[in-house]
Amino acid sequence: MSAPARTVRDEPITIAVLGGGTVGAEVVRQITAQQDDFASRVGAPLRIMGVAVRDANRARPGIDPELITTDTLGLAGSGADIVVELMGGIDTARECILAAMAAGSSVVTANKALLAADGASLYSAAEEHGVDLYFEASVAGAIPLLRPLRESLAGDRVLTVLGIVNGTTNFILSQMEERGADYADVLREAQELGYAEADPTADVEGHDAAAKAAILAELAFHTRVTADQVSCEGISHVTLADVEAARQMGFVIKLLAVAERNIDAEGNDRGVTVRVHPAMVPVDHPLASVRDAFNAVFIVAEAAGELMFYGRGAGGQPTASAVLGDVVAAARNRVSGGRGPGESIYAELPVLPLEQAMTRYYVNLDVADRPGVLATIAQAFSDHGVSIQVVRQDGHGDDAGLVLRTHQATDGALADTIDALRGLDAVKQVVGVMRVEGEAGS
Amino acid sequence: MSAPARTVRDEPITIAVLGGGTVGAEVVRQITAQQDDFASRVGAPLRIMGVAVRDANRARPGIDPELITTDTLGLAGSGADIVVELMGGIDTARECILAAMAAGSSVVTANKALLAADGASLYSAAEEHGVDLYFEASVAGAIPLLRPLRESLAGDRVLTVLGIVNGTTNFILSQMEERGADYADVLREAQELGYAEADPTADVEGHDAAAKAAILAELAFHTRVTADQVSCEGISHVTLADVEAARQMGFVIKLLAVAERNIDAEGNDRGVTVRVHPAMVPVDHPLASVRDAFNAVFIVAEAAGELMFYGRGAGGQPTASAVLGDVVAAARNRVSGGRGPGESIYAELPVLPLEQAMTRYYVNLDVADRPGVLATIAQAFSDHGVSIQVVRQDGHGDDAGLVLRTHQATDGALADTIDALRGLDAVKQVVGVMRVEGEAGS
């Protein structure tokens, strides 16, 4: 009754690895250490043809020195079955990937910046040369996420993607919340621990998350989305007071990558919105308990309903796990003569500006302590077509405060309302404003 | 710069659907309603050739009556590109699937019972006839889980799978915990709401979860596992007192499907253990917050680390989402001339009996209130090589109680310890015993 396992052929699947950093070295080590497992899973042995590095003199434990080369473009175009691009950066990486595809190689890459800037030219070359393009490691590290989006959900209609896709900012926000520590203090600590870079801009200002949001949106909505179309706001202005105010209302603050279908009253697609910003999430939402450097992506699809994918978003080993899954997939396709899923961009939905995104605001105001203030403020919301869901008045005299949460409205109407509030005599200061995501209903 | 989308060919991919129940009807409706989307995603239009049902006279809204047939085996063997098996049961379903494969059809099935009983003959036939076998919907409904295990983690080494894979029991346990309601009352309510069957045995005794555990273990460990090798204990004996005791210690009770690599001190594989039983899970574990009828599967892999997949485990629409993802995958393979991943059973690890599983116990004892009781009891644990992690003494006189949690030991040693405790004069009653899962460390 034992099934005939697919036989393992003698002819190897050849692999060229571009980049010998943490992930590249781990990929090479795993392929070497688990060669019998890989051969059985693929149906052919995997053989590393070369590892291209910048500095050939650095010691690289576990990598045969004979494999090392500094001729990256030469190795890329050498015609290996699979080229694994782990160099990062845009221009040189693109040149190498295009050379690889032109030479008939399938490509596995973790390069989110390149995919988010110019995925089109990679897909186009893959199609032209009949090769595979896999990039699971480019978003949310080890979490199997892109394959589910490209394949498992290929028969469904994705409505919303809400992702915690940057570990550094999630670590900072978690620590602020758990320990009541200031943003600047936690950032310094994260830098000391190696969780944040010396220049943390790409993480804390949301640029890293924006590239991932573009990749997720493109796959979810079958629509071309590039990083420059993603509106982006980071966490550097989030204060401990914001975190405390959120907690009092039963929310936590997360930096979210949000990609949504924008649907009109008749249920037709108006377009998609893609944005990165800090947001208040209800404590009982599955994303709220995603702490420290973990990543998670919450997806709502028409038939599947709510889904969440959770795991480690970075690190050499987790990223190598994702890369190796892609290597096995590309290798299996070589052995069977098949192809992985190609680009599936056909919907051409317009990418709408942030102002047209449907969202909800939390607003915290210092107000004058006199009769009629609430009426004046409520009128300002109403004038912009924004309806208030909850309002709480706190304190007296100089400490008088109003905390509100709105119903859903366009981000443009909400932002205009805040501008109008700033112009009111009754409002002494807009203490806090933040979007609210992940709540049921409107 | 726009990439050339793969062209949509005219020749359709033909599909035969066996089973016209909730899921089958939903699959047919979605393929019809979203035909343009499917054509773009696949590269060819999908055409339904027939829907086999038991009762041709029942009204089936949204399904063209011309497609209906009661000749299930005939439709199965008609040579459609893809046969979707949604009949359930074992013998007839197997006969139809084998007929379909013999006729050259790729097969998509949601049939967990058949896969867990005799996946080998399906894989074998798929291999023999060069067709695909996909079965994402067989475990955890809409959650993309089997594709990640078969493909995304194909380059990693899975260590542990902990799954909440039965919605009925998770609903019952969640309600007991949240509302302090009795098992019997919540079960009755679940039956009234349609969350539990009139005969709830398959769910509450863990048989449904055991079939899913076998499928997960087989994919995770590249080793043949059938349902009859899964040790299985249900939730019908779980009391409100157990739930309360767990809460006091910072745990929740979940019915878990557990599949683990059993590794010796040198790090070599001794085998795998696969079991279903209620377990105490720490409240801060990602599985603890999976409530009501939701499913989630937590996976630990060597390189990827901790992963979790969360979503709806049942229901017509969610299950249809998983089936349709598989249909698109099988259809893309037909168009590209490729093959999906085949069976990957090569490790042949022994499936070990429950006694050899490594686990930890929570034990709640009514004890005699006299000096030396703790020493006597501690000795009983020590005699079996079981070390105690935490012990708490409560009450006096007739109410004297001891609550313990052990360190990790073999299930056999732990079970023997409980037997020994039952024989001690100092122990008036073993009030509660439950395994503990999901805690860090040993």
Structure, described:
The structure is a homodimer of 442-residue chains. Chain A has 14 helices and 17 strands. Chain A is of the alpha/beta class and 442 residues long. The first copy, chain A, has three domains: 13-141 and 317-336, NAD(P)-binding Rossmann-like Domain (Rossmann fold, 3-Layer(aba) Sandwich); 147-311, Dihydrodipicolinate Reductase, domain 2; 356-436, Alpha-Beta Plaits (2-Layer Sandwich). In chain A, strand 5, helix 5 (112-129) and strand 6 (133-134) form a beta-alpha-beta unit. The radius of gyration of chain A is 25 Å and the shape is elongated. The relative contact order of chain A is 0.12. The mean pLDDT of chain A is 94. Chains A and B meet through helix 2, helix 5, helix 6, strand 12 and helix 12 of A and helix 2, helix 5, helix 6, strand 12 and helix 12 of B.
